[in-house]
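PT: before anyone asks, these are the final sequences, not the draft ones from last week. 922 residues across everything. Please model them as a single complex and drop the result in this thread when it's through.
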Amino acid sequence: MTNDLNKVLARIDQDLPDALDRLQDLLRIPSVSTDPAFASDVDRAAQWLVNDLNNLGFSARKDETPGHPMVVATGGAQDGAHLLFYGHYDVQPVDPLDLWNTDPFDPVIEDTANGKVIRARGASDDKGQLMTFVEACRAWLAVHGTLPVKLTFCMEGEEESGSPSLVPYLEANRDALRADLALICDTGLFDAQTPAITTMLRGLLGEEIIIHGPARDLHSGAFGGAAMNPARVLARILADLHDDQGRVTLPGFYDGVPELTDALRSQWDGLGFDADAFLGSVGLKHPAGEAGRSALEMIWSRPTCEINGMTAGYTGAGFKTVLPARASAKVSFRLVGSQNPQELRAAFRDFVRARIPADCRVEFIDHGASPASVMETSHPAFEAARAALSDEWPKPAAFVGAGGSIPIAGYFKSILGMDSMLIGFAKDDDQIHSPNEKYDLDSFHRGIRSWARIIDAVSRA
Amino acid sequence: MTNDLNKVLARIDQDLPDALDRLQDLLRIPSVSTDPAFASDVDRAAQWLVNDLNNLGFSARKDETPGHPMVVATGGAQDGAHLLFYGHYDVQPVDPLDLWNTDPFDPVIEDTANGKVIRARGASDDKGQLMTFVEACRAWLAVHGTLPVKLTFCMEGEEESGSPSLVPYLEANRDALRADLALICDTGLFDAQTPAITTMLRGLLGEEIIIHGPARDLHSGAFGGAAMNPARVLARILADLHDDQGRVTLPGFYDGVPELTDALRSQWDGLGFDADAFLGSVGLKHPAGEAGRSALEMIWSRPTCEINGMTAGYTGAGFKTVLPARASAKVSFRLVGSQNPQELRAAFRDFVRARIPADCRVEFIDHGASPASVMETSHPAFEAARAALSDEWPKPAAFVGAGGSIPIAGYFKSILGMDSMLIGFAKDDDQIHSPNEKYDLDSFHRGIRSWARIIDAVSRA
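LR: through. Structure below.
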């Protein structure tokens, strides 16, 4: 099949100018999903994809939802490996518009110190990325008339507005969507030379605690000393959440937190992650998590507890001698391995309640929970894809973690019973969600070639 | 002299309707000092007092300041005890006006379940109070043609707007204002039956700490675990400020904190202070300060540390997985005895700095400091005034503490070298600074009689 693949890669190189034109067409559609003013544009972007996929020979359609439509398409081989591809065609708003150097919906190709880029809202997140996969399919089809795998597309138009229709849609279309493996193209490279398959995504548990003390704000002169100050209670609780070694003190917190395998540790060591540069980019020097862990472990494979917000009393300019009636904090936990969010929520609430004195009461607000996603990398497609990526890029691909959450992989697992490979070609400096978003032409070109290789490799795995 | 006094008291009773008319005249002048729109009204109130005191035979004048004028007057006996009387003729703003049941500047006499009241802005704070003293003088002068003491008035028009001109004025007029003792009428009764002389006022030290961590707010997924969270640092610092016994942990904090004398403890025990009712009025049950101290000690004679405000990260509705770049708190200490505010500020800053990890830095904002005021109750006027008050009211007078700060007494001591007796007749339910402020007619009437007695008693002490 190597010869088959080589022809596809050559076709990709030859077709790159046209592929760029097509991406620019799609980028010109301002498919901002969160703003109702752009609803018809979001629909137009969906229709653009449907038309393009139909032209390629897929059977494509818009599936309406209460929000924006799903673009669904099927095609490729009649048997063999069945892959589901996920990307999203909606984009973030562009505000503040005055910080853009060009029209966010009039894409331009620019020369930069790091090579050519295509600059527009959605260039990286996620139109440029999803088109790498579409273009890889186009080249395969152009050269061979078919694909070596069976393929389903499921592309969303609400990813940037909280995906309200996604779970109901997946639940209502289990049978139609289920495949052997999902490919999700919404992540990044490890660095400009090193591709990555994200195999570990931390989960997230969000809680808000509101500690109520006196019936109203009090004058700290008249009542100070005698009246319980809920801000003091809150500070004690928050301080108690970590020990001196940076470990989270909730009972049972580390149940289900696995140690890295030797194989993964060795891959990560090989990445040459520059912790100094990573922290230095935000003005820091010292990894702040558990003693004895590397910065990479802290963000990829270790759980955390963070105070995301807290407030009590008077926070304006100057001073007010108020003894506040309430104090509140938003606290989140990043979860790994098989940590159970519901058990940890209960443990957290017990921990807090045990520290509420007689004259206070506590109120909890549930801000959601999702477990970590840990991919089944024993599936042969993972090593096949890793080898394929390693063939394309200057440095070998690695299985990496991600500190944040990408819920779609969890939904594919829990609703469709399907593992996901998260592969993408974005760079840290793509400025997604910010003004002047861009996607490197190198990401786009090698991205298309990467998918062509992966389709080939997975079909033979 | 008893006969002299009795005639004065009889005159006060007889003149009460006219005294009320005069108070209502003064209350009709909207002397809101903080709002420039009322500047001419503030001046008019000052002129009203000057005219009234001149009519009584005092030599009265407005002394201009960069802000509102001081009303200064001298008169009374040529020799003997020399007293300085302080009150303020400015008032708080009336907002929110829609919560008033009557026009705040159209005083009315109302019958209530607890007796007649005069309702208007400033009725209690402080026009009603200062007029108790003026009316006592009027009665003495009407009956005897003179006073048994030498008297200086110093009445301020900026008390409700931070007294910006007060200290420079006192410093520039040391010789003219210095007397044997100051009488300050801006405090309250212990309860409706029990008059009080406030002899201990807590001082106040205000500090703001701002802990800076990362150069910008971070995504808690991308950086959580590896990046230091300043909110966590702040929580630890604030939690460390108290031990498990409710004591403040700053080194040296209790230096200069005296134990109550047996005499004072005995007086306080005799007050029958109802801690349950005091805390119950604001929805609390348990004195929250140092273990083993009574609630009255906690608010009158023990120092405190309170968090008056704190903020970090996202505090709006919902949730945001932000790792904040900074966290800040406003912290104040109520001081007693001879605690040194400047030494404690330094101790606090050392305490905080010792808890700032390598990747954070701390910024401090000085929000002022004043030491506690502890009156020299050994001055014979104190016991004389206490006896005089005890003669007038149903229950004996007590020397009491006050949790809040009244800076004027400290200034009289530090600038004029003069002790102060703080005596007033306000009640806890007078709603000062709030809508529907009132002053009980009983406070006004007995207040005038109280001053007549005190002038008599001090003249013979």
